[in-house]
């Protein structure tokens, strides 16, 4: 549940400042995003729209986390 004093609440309500990516586009780019993210240990700077989308979309964020965990387990 979101609390009124949540520091990220305002940014989520206002939406992303970067160009937006749809859920379909996010799903298509997710493999490349996760690979780049795990190589650099940080969100890819070249994909700010993906980062913004993942911060604001719980469904895509869940898919992102699942894919990250899968890739990490395969690398171990």
How would you portray this structure in words?
By secondary structure, the chain is an all-alpha fold. The protein has one domain. Helix content is 67%, strand content 0%. The protein has four helices and no strands. The chain has helices spanning 9-14, 23-40, 48-56, 58-75. The longest helix has 18 residues, at 23-40. The radius of gyration is 13 Å and the shape is globular. The model has no long low-confidence stretch (mean pLDDT 84).
Short summary:
The chain has 76 residues and is mainly α. It contains 4 helices and no strands.
Number of strands: 0
Structural domains: how many: 1
SSE ordering: HHHH
* Structural class by sheet pairing and helices: mainly alpha
Major sheet summary line:
none
Strand proportion, as a percent range, falls in under 5%
Q: Poorly predicted ranges (pLDDT <50, ≥5 residues)?
A: none
Average pLDDT, rounded to a whole number, is: 84
First-to-last CA distance: 34 Å
Distinct helical segment count: 4
